Amino acid sequence: MILDSSFLIELLRQEQDAFDKGVTLAESGIPQRIPSPVLYELRYGVELKGNADERRVVRNLPRLYPVVRLNEELASDAATLVAAADEAAGGPGQSGIDDIDPMIAAVADAVDEPVLTENVDDFERLGVTVETW
């Protein structure tokens, strides 16, 4: 299961549905992974608006979940996925998908796992399976 920042934010906020989904995944033995661009999003957010405790929690996430680092192949796949979504929407930039989501989708595509996110529309336009909580 590829963990998107939206899930991790809700989990860190102790939102019950996100917590329950995390427990279900753990008890089911389903592997959970964080793409490195998700760490970027989370770290950026806590650097701007977080307190010391929130920054510490985000820094410790790689100790809790394996991190999938972006490489040349994943970067190329991300570009292919967003280009297809833009083309389907009418041209460059027309899908409205940000720069980070295609990188997360490329990880999901490479390991053939769904993305756990609230951002269903963008990831579906990128052609990957999505789960919510």
Describe the structure.
This protein is mostly helical and 133 residues long. It has a single domain (2-131), classed as 5'-nuclease (Rossmann fold). The protein is 62% helix and 8% strand. Strands 1-4-5 form a 3-stranded parallel β-sheet. The radius of gyration is 15 Å and the shape is globular. The two termini are 12 Å apart. The mean pLDDT is 97.
For the biggest β-sheet, the strand order reads 1-4-5
Element-by-element helix/strand order: EHHEHHEHHEHE
In DSSP terms (H or I, runs of 4 or more residues), the helix count works out at: 7
Number of strands: 5
- Rounded to an integer, what's the Rg over CA atoms? 15 Å
What is the CATH class?
A: Alpha Beta
Sequence stretches where pLDDT stays below 50 over 5 or more residues: none
| CATH level-4 homologous superfamily | 5'-nuclease
Structural class: mainly alpha
Q: What is the CATH topology descriptor? A: Rossmann fold
Amino- and carboxy-terminal Cα gap: 12 Å
Mean pLDDT: 97
User: Strand portion, in percent?
Assistant: 5-15%
Overall 3D form: globular
Keywords:
Rossmann fold; mainly alpha; two-stranded parallel sheet; globular; 5 strands; three-stranded parallel beta sheet; 133 residues
SSE map:
Layout: E1 2-3, H1 5-12, H2 16-28, E2 34-35, H3 36-49, H4 52-64, E3 67-68, H5 72-89, H6 101-111, E4 115-116, H7 120-125, E5 130-131
